[in-house]
Amino acid sequence: MSDSKVLIISTKETFSVHGMESKLAEIGYEAVFVPAETDALIDMEFESNLLVYYMDDKAPVNPAFMVYLKDLCMEHEKSLILVGRKEEYEAVRNYVPEYCISAWFQRPLDMNEFLEAVRQQFDSRLLASTRKTILIVDDDVTYMQMVRDWLKDKYIVVMANSGVKALQWLATNKADLVFLDYEMPVVNGPTIFEMLKSEAETDVVPVVFLTGQMAKSSVLTAMKLRPVDYLLKSITRTELIQKLEGYFAGPKGVNSR
Questions:
Q1: Rg from Cα positions in the chain
Q2: Which of 75, 99, 128 is the last residue of a domain?
């Protein structure tokens, strides 16, 4: 993945899109056009962490594409810049949470402000590279978003709403700690845990089980798998932050890259 590549998404590679590409190249960034189609974005999704969606008022919003764009930003920590009119922005907001949108510019585009926003996004990415990465795996998206809001100022927080998506993310990315829901449909937490420990690339990733269950038998069963810890979902923000500080304290913390 390039540290200076921007994916510009739009229905067509118009004169305005070409202008954005040229101006980005002038300040040292490589801009790549991607059609606003799910298959096209899937092919390019790991090429850059910065996505610019140039919205076209002549093309209706594609719900399937919007859902995929939302999942991509939430689960892979992509930064998303929107360019378009207010009604186009609001149409996207029906699918993509506001916290996933890094910036929004109305057309006609103020190029200088846009370029500055791109610079800031890459600068913040560079700063974030020194922070610990936490992967939350839970089928309860509302709970994941709450935990992300608690931790996002200090940690990079990635969300996956299934074990399969978590494994896919870990195949190409590294986490310093995984919060894993103990009870999930289809593939439960213990099964995912054992899958992680069976692969050399993910065996060293520390795992903390999360559960809403308070039964002693559940705690004993989980701890037999030897995770780093086992936390109840009723834990408070302050308690969770203190736990994390404890995990990462010491010369190596819970994980040494």
A1: 20
A2: 128
